[in-house]
Each structure stands twice: as C-alpha cells, then as structure tokens.
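From the thread on structure requests for the teaching lab: each student submitted one protein with a one-line request. Submission from student K.M.:

"Model Carboxypeptidase regulatory-like domain-containing protein from Neolewinella lacunae, tokens only."
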Amino acid sequence: MKRTLLLALLLFAAFSIYAQTALSGKVVDIDNDKDPLPFATVQVYKNGAFYQGTTTDLDGNYYFSNIDPGTYDLQVDYTGYPPTKLTAIPVKAGQTNFANVEMSSNGGIALDVVVVTDFKVPLIEQDNTTSGQTVTSEQIRNLPTRNINQIASITAGASSADEGGAINIRGSRSNATDYYVDGVRVSAVSIPDSEIEQLQVVTGGLEARYGDVTGGIISITTKGFSDQFRVNAEAETSEGLDAYGNSLVGVSFTGPLLRNKKKDAVLGYRLSARYTYQEDDDPSAVPIFRAKDDVIAALEENPVIRRGGRNLVAADFLTSADANSLKTRPFEEASTLNLNGNITARLSDAIDVTVTGAYGDNSNQFTPGENGAGNWRLLNAQNNPTAFSQNYRGNVRLRHRLGGNGVADGGSGKSSVLQNASYNLQFTVENRTSSVADPRHGENFFDYGHVGTFDIDYIPIYGIRPDTANPLEIVTFHSDYREVLRSYDPSTSSNPVLTNYNNFFGYGADEIFNSDVSALSGGGTQGPTLDGGFATINGRTQTLFTDQWGFNSNVGTVYNLYQKTDNDLYTFQANASFEIVPGSSDKSRHSIQLGVWYEQRTDRAYSLNPRALWTVGRQLVNRHIPSVAETNRVVDSVALLLGEDVRTVAVLAPTVDNIDGQFYRSIRERLGVPLDQHVNIDGLDPSQLSLDLFSARELTFNNLLNYYGYDYLGNEFNGSFDDFFTLDPNTGERAFNVAPNRPIYAAAYIQDKFTINKMIFRLGLRVERFDANTKVLKDPYSLYEIIGADDFHSNFGGTQPGNIGADYAVYTSEENGTEVQAYRSGDAWFLPDGSPTNGPQEIDGIRSGLVFPKYANPLVNNLGANFIKSDEFTVDDSFKDYEVQFNVLPRLAFSFPISDDANFFAHYDVLVQRPPSGSIATPLDYFFFVENAGSRTFSNSALRPERTVDYKVGFKTRLSNTSALTLEAYYREMRDMIQLRTYFPVPLVQQYTTFDNQDFGTVKGFALTYDLRRTANFTINANYTLQFADGTGSNATSQRGLGNRGNLRTLFPLDFDERHRFNLVLDYRLDSRSSAPKFLHNAGINLQSSAVTGRPYTATFLPEEFGGSGTRGAINGSRQPLTLTLNGQVSKDITFGQNSQVNIYFRVSNILDRRNVLNVYSATGSPTDPGFLQSIFGLDQIRSLEGGTRPVESYLATYQQRVLNPDFFTLPRRMFVGAIFSL
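Reply posted by the TA:
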C-alpha cells in the first residue's frame, strides 16, 4: 500500500499555488437591457503583451482559467460594436476574479477607436472565501516601507513586534507562517519589493491547495515580461539624513525576445538586480557604548594588570569618560545582492513554459553576545565576525490549457459540459548555504587558540629504594618523567592581543624558566607551569580574565565557532483544473481542482569550537605513556649526585600502552617521532596540526564538534542512519559519518467550488503525508529496547495482570531481576498487580529515578551505558523507523451574498504542519546520550506534525459607493505544538530533556476592516483586531525552567498576544486631472500607522543584575506599554518623453521617533532599570566593592551602559530619499 501511494505521488507530484486563479465575466449590450453578447472575442494583456484569448459562450460569459495573478487589461471585440477595453484589472491568486464588460453600438463604429474604461474593483467580492489582504505593486510602491513582513503586518490578524520582525498570524507562532514566490514555497525570500506584482496575505480560510502550514500564507507574485523593451532603475539612500548609512541601487530589464506573425510577443524575459548596503542593519533607539580607540589600544597592550597584589582585568578600571556614546552600532555592516530573472515562452495559444531563477548573496557582520553576557561591543567589536549566506532557486513550469471554453458546438446550441480544462507541471530546486567563522582565522582552526610557543621538556625523575640483595645499600632508579617548561616565545602567536594577557608576568622570550636536567622525585627547581603560570595558553584563557565585570568580553577575544550549513529543497508539482457546467454557466458551474505535491529536503550542518582543539590534543598526545618500567629499553644514562656519591642511572624509554586512539599515533607519524617519545604539542606551529590527525571519536567525545550530512572533517556524506554504526572492515572502527536530514513531504487534494441559490460553496479535502525518513528511539524512556510483558512472563514466569498489554515495558526490582516492580505503556504507569497510577512518583523504588528495566538484549546488562559503543550493538537494539504520519484535512467554506451590497461568509479548516523545530536527532546524539543527558537538550526525530483547527464567520457590507466594512470573528484551537519535556525516570541517566508534541492553545478574535476606495483623492484602509491568544507555551522552549517533571497544562497569554491592534493606511494623491497647482499633479502622501497594546511578560519580585527571579502573579500576567508607530512617504511622478517616468520620494520610518517598548526588566516593568542597584542584593554588591582594589565607579558606569538594551525598543526614526526611473 505504501509503495503504491508513493508511486502515485511521484507520478502526479503536486499542485501549483496558482491553481484555479481565474478571470471571468459577462459581456452585455448596455443599450438593450444588458442582453448577453455570445461569441464575442475576448483578449487579455499583461504589461502590454498579449496573454490569452477566448470567446464568450451563449450566455455572454467568458472564462480565463489557470492564469497568473497580476494586473491585466481586457479587450472585447464584437461585430457592430466598437472595441471596448477594461484596464488595470487586478487578478488575485486563488480566486475567480470578475470583470463584466458593457458594450454599446450607439454612434456606430469609428475606425481605430477603442473605448477605454478604467476597471473599478468591486467592494464586495462574493467569490472570495479566504481572509486576508492583497497588495498590488502600485500600493507597495506608495507604502513607506520596503520590508515584506512590514507590508504583510498591515493586514487584520497579522502582527509583527517591530518593522521587519517575525509575523504572527491570528495568534499562531511565527514559524507557522509560510512564504511562497511564484507559487513555490521558499525558505528564504530574496525578492526586492520593486519586483513584486502582487503580495497576498492569507490569514484564514485556506483552500485545499495550501498545506504544511498552521498559521497563514504570504504569497508573492513577481512581475512578468513587457511587450516593449523597458528599463527600470532605482536608488535610495539615508546618507545625510540619519546616522545609519542605508543605501540601495537596483535595475531591471524586460521585453520581448521573439514575436509571431501577428506581432504578439511569444518569448519574453525580465531580469533584475538589486544591491543593498547597510552600515547598521538594526539601528538602536538608545545610545550605543564603545570604548574609545586609544583606550582599546592601551587595553590590547596590557589587558591584565596587577593591583593590590592581585591580577585583574584592566578594563575593570574604565570609567564613563573612557567610552563614546554612539548612534550607530560599530562594525555591524550588512550587504545583500539579489538577482532575479524569468523567461516565458508561449509555444502556442494553449501551452506556455516559464523558467524563473533567483540568487541572493548576503553578508552580515554582527556582535557576538549582543545585549547579553559576553557582549563584544564595548571592547572587541573591531573583531566582529561576519555571517555569509547564499541562496539560489530555479523553477520550470509547463502550463497546458486543454480548451473547452463553453462555446456551443456547431449549430447545436449546446455548450460542452467539461470546460476550461488545464494542467500544470512544475519542478523547483532551491539551495541555501551559510557560514560563519572568526574573520582573522577562517578555516585555520588551530590559529583560533594559538598564543605562542611553549618549550616543554620531559625530564627523567628518579627514586631510591633498598637493594633487595643488600638491604643496607640504596638503589637509584628511573621512576618517571616530569613535564618542565623551559621557555615561552610569544612572538609566534596567531593572536597577539591574547598573548598580551601574559604581559603582567614579565616573561621574556629568551628567559629560561627551568634548567633542570634530572632530579630525584620531588626535587629540582619548580618554575611556572602551563596550568598555573599564565593567564592564557594555547586553547585556553583563565576565566578570571575573559570579561569585564562579567558584562563584556575582554579585548582580543576570538570568535570560537566555525559553522556551515547546506540545505537543498527539491519540489515537483502537478495539478489539474476544469469546470463542470451541466446547465447554465451562470448558475451551475463546478470549479474542480485536484493535485499532488512531492517534496524532498536535504539538510546539512557542521559546527566546531576550534579553540578547544589545543586542550584535546594536549590531553591525547601523550596519554599512551603512563610511566616507565625497568624492562624498558635504555635510551641514555646520567650521573646523579646522591649525598657524596655519584651514581650512574639508566634513563629508560617511557612505557607505551597500546590504547585506542588516533591522535597520538598520527602526530608522531607526521613529526617522525617514535611512540615511546614524548611530544610537546604546545611547541608546534598551528600549520603542523590539522583535524585529520584526530579520530572522529576523539573530537566528538569532547563536545567540540557536531554535524550531520558531513563526516567529521566537514566533507559531505550521503549515507543512511545505519552507516554511523557500521564498522569499517579495514580498521574495525566506526567512521562516525552522520547522514543528512532528509524528510519527505507529500500531499494530494481535491476541491470543488460551486453555487447553490446564490450561495457559493467551497468543499475541499487534503491528505498530507510526512515521513521524517530516519530512525527514532523505540522507547523515549530508554536508550535500549525494553522487553514487553508477554515476552517477560513467557521467559521468566509470574502472572501477567489481565489489563497489561503484550508490549507494556517491564521494570524489575533490581538489575537484570525477575521480580516485577512496574509496567509502563507510553506515559502510563502501572503497579505490579496492574493497578494504574498517576505517574512514576507513586511507585515505590521507581520514584527515586533509579530504575531497572528488563532489556530485550541481555548484553545491555553487562555493558550498560557503553553498549551502544560496543561492536555488539546493532541499530535494532534501540531504534525503529519513523512512523509515517497521514493527516486527512477537510476544508469547508461558503459565501452567501445577502444582496449586491452585503455578503456573509464562513469557513472551517483543519491544518497541520510538519515539526518546524527540534526534530533533527542524529546517531551522534544517541552515541553520547549518557554523557550529555544532564547538560543538554536533545532533539526528537519522532515528533508529529502540529495541528490547528480554524473557524471563522464574517460579514461584509457596502457603506457607500466607495467604502465597505468587514466584520470577522474567528476561533483557533492549536494542538500537538512542540514544547520541551523531561522524561523521568530513565535508566542510566534518571532523566533527560527533549521536545515533544505537548503544547495546546486557543485563539479567540474579532477583526473589523474599513476600506475606502479613492474618494476626494483619499484612500483609507483601516483595521482593528481584538484577540485573546492563550496557550501552554509560546515557543518550543518557553517552558524551560518552569519545572522539570511534567509540563504546565494551564493556559496563559502567549508572548505574542496582542489584545488590541489598530492599523491605518491613508493615501492622499492628486492625479493629472486635479485642479490643484500643476506642480502637485501626480504627487501624493502615504501614512501608515499602528497602535498596539503591550505584549505580556511574567513579572518577578527578586531583581537581578539584568533580570529577575521568583514569579510575581501569573505567568505572562503583566503587560508592556502600548506601542504607537507612524511611517510616511511623500512621492511624485514626473513624466518625460513619451513613455518615460521618474518617481521621486522621501520616506520616514517612525516619524515620531518614539521609543516603543518591546521588552522590560521583569522585576520593575521598566525597559531601562532592572531595580538591582536599589535592591538588597545590589547594595551588598556595592558594599563589597567599596574600599577594594576595583573602583565602584567603574562597576556602576559599566553596569549602566549595559542596562540600556537596544533589543528592548523598536527601531528609531530613519529617513530615506529615493528615485525610481522607468524608461
């Protein structure tokens, strides 16, 4: 069955998001009681280029199915009537758009005369069964923002905390919002706003063609080619207007490449490019503090000083006079290059092929630890790393319209029942890569921690004992080797500033610390050692010197992370649509859509903490040399003074243990050193070291390396989960290759839209299949499989209670015991007699967390935690295939036109989304499960899709000829949301934390939207949303720290709950026919404002330096202040020549320059004062510093700088001037 379904999915492979976007209408004679005009020729044009043609049926109806969203012109020709054209018809995605044409024969036909009428968008869209908003390219150009999320946030029900912030749609989490570009779901949006033809925000009433989403959809349609060659250019800058240095330049080219005999363009293209540069891509509304350049230079020379007999961080003595207050974050540059293109070939009137492509290249310099512990900004911003990302997307779409437009056959007078049939085939490839590293060292991993050359020698030490042959005599013997530091040369350092941490010791490059050659055990001169004689050594800096007051990282800090990701996405789609018209096409049309979708992801990630390589290497390089033995070979002899006697003592080679490990062997092979000779890793140059000297296990055991889709050296690996545990036949060892994450998603849907007694119904059914395509633990309560009750009692006797199932896990009273202590099925626990309990805490012995399950494989009892590391372990001992998830999702909606001026609508949707986070668990995680259970959170590949049930009812009514009011009430129920959970009790580790489908939430809301079309030069779009978004968790980790045994099941306001939100977009524009002075013609002003009541937070009563503890009141029971934002743009179109135009504009974000609050300190509710200094804890802190070596004034100055957190406020006022040229 599964193979049959998979084959079917592969054959069909998915739907197009543009399925059943249609343009329909009726052509009538306005002079004759609006009689229909059959067989009229109807043609649509896009950007001046012929797009498609048809003829009207017997009832005068025309229908264009399966067309792209956008803006069209429509021309109708009919014998005896002058040609009539409707211009600027907006066609919205996913719905049938209506445009009726009225023709008149009065006055006859004038040659070369076309009657042109501007299309008036109807206020009441009776066919629209979805909630949301569509924004056209003209509206986008007039808005005072260039950010897609900000544009989307003006929709009722959509919210964003700040401009460009993540979008929450109707109380859903931000990761529940999906983005589509030209019908393809994308992971990254890299489309400039100037290339957007239409942006659609769908907040509810999702059609069956949408899937794998539980929030909403932001769908972008890009512009197509033009009938004439056109060049568009744009430039924008904030230079000279504000301090943030934002600029962009862009250009696009479009036009035909080939025309047919009718001079219609049949091959056309559109190419665009945009480059954006931002000196500061996240401006701060509060001052930014950065130490002065001369202060930083002095600190870099001497980062550590000696005062009062103590070694202290020199930066601890800085005062407020040593720092500059800045408006722009230093060393935070960002740049983006976007390239987009499409080519469309119209092979015939019925077949077209479109090839689109996009490329994005981004670089973003950032401050590590920004606004948190270890902030680099004050002292180390000059070393800020840069994150790089690139993405490309290619898409090929074949569209074939099979015909059947409803025209009567011959003279029969009957129209065909099956009409407007078409299908699409579409294939998409997307790739996204990213990387980040320290800018000074890149992939030179051993440079990250290198601070110089340490000359370390290993000298013999000797012991004495009575001679066994003559007890009165003393025997001297070589007992061991001692590590002796001879000298330190900092001149070879790869990190000169880190090297200067050792300056206060006063060591010279030629200084000899220890000249000992040999000594008795405990004798000789002891000089400085690596562990105690330096502030920093290769790979490690004493934590005492790494930061200033615990707030800011010290100068010279190295970014200790190398990371890269590589994500591929392959999507194949197909869909079909057609109309069934058994009777009159006006009343009995059934619009059928059906399709399938197949998607395969391949995700890879690799991260390394390079500085720790020196520490790991130091631990491993001589670990095979434990001591010396008298039977070892003699390598030398020394004369040792013992009292007045001089004794000759043999120097023995070290003992060599043949232990597992690669590094100690590989480094000696590279250096040409025998195994029984010590190696000083700190005397080597970084260029002599590399990752391949280590084995995978040596690096992964120490948690400095994590990866999937790569081998441990960072080379791509394409194997399976099982390959990790497969022994290499040549070495007998595991290669530790981790397979990439390769989830598979597939879906199929069918939908019918039809009308009964003027009521428009949309009935859809969608089936989604999700396969994580990996192995998961057989039992999340145990690393190893536990025997079932049937097998246990069959093998070991005893009575199995009647209510205990065959596969219930069995726990015994002792290790490998036979006396039952408890049974368990999933999360349900039972006593030995089968009585159910409320949890393991009610069972004697089990409640302690020390449990003894009866394992299915007896070998586990012998090896315990190390069984997974043994050669006897097999994948079946712990893992099973992911259980493929099938979800059947009904989609129901209807629209009831009460009259031409009012409409009632409602919908019911069931939505699911594959696990958006916490789902990539690898064999590497399980291999070190026992070692890491107490210190990390594990991902869980067994997560199920999240689920949402969405209800809505609404009413829309016309208020005047140019205005309408929409009222909507909605309810959402969210289940199986991902949240942290702790499993207890778990053998070997007692408990561990992972993710599970635990969270639940409800959203209740009411939305009111007022739409005023152009009236007296004004347009207004205003909406108000009242919402109650409650749940058990706001994100996948929000319950961390709230309890480790059982999740909270009480609903509380979610972090992104906004009780009241009001949005307003007001546009005032004068056209060329205005009576205003001519210089104001084609000019306008656009204002966009939002007012939002504060989001919730959890108040605390114990102030801490930068937070608080001890919950005061309920979770999220307090509210932040109201936020008010006003943005504006003034623009003017200037026409020159015949077809050339320039649009000049000046726009301002946050005109009022309000410091809107996004977060507060939980103990005070203030965004600028945690309340710590006034508390007893703060007063104790100050008293402890008074009279000490470090001045209180320095602490207070640094603390006050650090308290001002830019993340607690919205973006400040920003101003831009720009121009858009159309030639």
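TA comment: The chain is about 10% helix and 45% strand. The longest strand covers residues 990-1015.
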